[in-house]
Known about the structure:
Blueprint: E1 10-11, E2 24-29, E3 32-38, E4 41-43, E5 61-67, E6 70-75, E7 87-90, H1 100-118, E8 130-131, E9 138-139, E10 146-147, E11 152-161, E12 164-170, E13 181-184, H2 191-203, E14 207-218, E15 223-232, E16 245-252, H3 265-274
Parallel strand pairs: 2-6, 11-15
Antiparallel strand pairs: 1-5, 2-3, 3-4, 3-7, 5-6, 8-9, 9-10, 11-12, 11-13, 12-16, 14-15
Amino acid sequence: MIQDIEPRIFNNAFKNKKAEPHDLFLAYDGDTVLVREDKEKLWYPSFADFKEEYPELPDESQFLFSIDDINYYLVEKKGLDTVPGWSYVTTNRFRTELKYWRSFAGVVGWQLNRWYENHRFCSRCSKELVHSQKERMLYCKACGFQVYPVISPCVIVGVYNGDKLLLTKYAGRAYRRFALIAGFAEIGETLEQTVHREVQEEVGLKVKNLQFYKSQPWPFTDTLLVGIFAELDGEDTITIQEDELSLAVWVPREDIPPAESNISLTSEMMEAFRKGLV
Ligand SMILES: [Zn+2]
C-alpha cells in the first residue's frame, strides 16, 4: 500500500527547524505539484535548486515531516515553474508513481497543504491564525481557539458469503473499477456500527463476525481507512442504493479480477480474498 515505504521510515514528528539548502520542499497549486519528471519518476525540488531565482524560499517554508534523514518542507508560493526543468503535474501522478516513498511524501504534503490553505482565519472570531512553534497546530491569539489537522475515519468492508465477495461500483464517479462497501463514521457511532449501517444502506444486507484487517492513511481525501471483513448474516439478496452505487454483485473468489495496483487498502483486501488469504 502507498504508506508501505520500508525500509525507509516516515517520521511526522514536528520540528521547529529552519530549512537548509539540501532540504526538499513540496509546492502545490490546486491539484498540481511542482516536480521534475525524469525516467517516469517524480523528483521534488531542494531549496538549493531554487536558490538563485528564489533565495527567500527557506524563510517562507513550513516543516512537514522527514523520510529517513531527508526533511520535507511546504512552500506556499505559486508560479515556481519559471525555473527551467520544473513543472506542475497533476497529483493523480501519486497514484501511479511506483516508488511509494515519493508518492506518499507528495500526497501527505498535499493533505497538509490543503489544511494550511483552508485554515487561515479563526472560525470562532475570524482573526488570523498563527502557527504553533511546538506542534502541528494553528491557533488564534485573540480567543485561544486551536486547530489540528482533520482526519476522518472511514470503513472499507469486505462482505463475504462463503467463497464469494461482494464487489461494487460507485455511481457517478470517474473511478470505474470494482470497489468494496465504504463509508464515513458518523458522530456518536462506533466503527462496528458504521459497518452495519453502511452495508445495510448501500446493499440492504446484514453482516456478522466483523474482523479487523488493516488500516491505511488515505491523504487524498483526509481519511483514515479501516479495513474490516464481515460475513453475510442471513438473506443474500442485494438491494442497491442507486445514488451511491451503480452495481453490487457477489463474485466467486476465482472470478475476482487481479489487482492492477496495490496502493489502496481496497485493492489489497480484494487481492487477499482472491488469493484465499482471508
Ligand atoms: Zn479566535
